[in-house]
Amino acid sequence: MARQPKKQRPEKHWHRGGCHCGAVAFEVRTADEIELVDCNCSICRKTGYLHLIVGDKDFRLVRGQDALAAYTFNTGAAKHLFCSVCGIKSFYIPRSHPDGYSINFRCLDASEFKSVVTTEFDGSHWEQNAGDLAALESN
Ligand SMILES: [Zn+2]
Questions:
Q1: CB atoms within 10 A of CB 92
Q2: For the chain, does the N or the C end have fewer beta carbons within 10 angstroms?
């Protein structure tokens, strides 16, 4: 029997990030080639949020559980987490991936990636376009 070629999964590395004051710190594991989502929904537009969506195995909170406050609106499915000291939303639990996390790419500490591709998402019409996000779960 011919041997099946092993499917190559991209190697992943951990990156550090957090809020502005340092109360909240996390680590996120990604491939060196990443895809970001620039969403124009009511909250992302106002925060300038740039999404890096990962599964729960690729995220760990280093510190700040007690500093995090949650904000919800509309369906309440997304848990918008922000630092109660400095107000920065460095990651949260998105409606599109309730078992994962969306990291704010702008809140990563200096990190290097081989490629960073940003895709626009029309989140102002979330219901019609949510399917586009399904493919983004960390590869
Ligand atoms: Zn903070």
A1: 21
A2: N
Cβ 52 vs Cβ 113: under 8 Å: no
Distance 72 CA to ligand 1 centre (A): 19
Kindly state whether residue 38 falls inside one of the protein's structural domains: yes
Q: d(Cα 24, Cα 99) in Å, to the nearest integer? A: 20
- Name which of 117, 110, 111, 64 is nearest 88 in CA terms: 64
Cα 18 to chain centroid distance, Å, stands at 12
Domain assignment present for residue 4? The answer is no
pLDDT, tens only, 115-129 = 999 998 888 887 788
Token couple for 56 = 């729960």
Residue 5 lies in a domain: no
Going from the Cα of 99 to the center of ligand 1, the distance in angstroms, rounded, reads 24
For 123, phi then psi, to 5°, come to -75, -10
Instruction: Give the torsion sign (CA, 122, 125, 126, 131).
Output: negative
44 within domain boundaries: yes
Domain enclosing residue 107, as ranges:
13-136
Q: How far is the CA of 23 from the centre of ligand 1 (A)?
A: 5
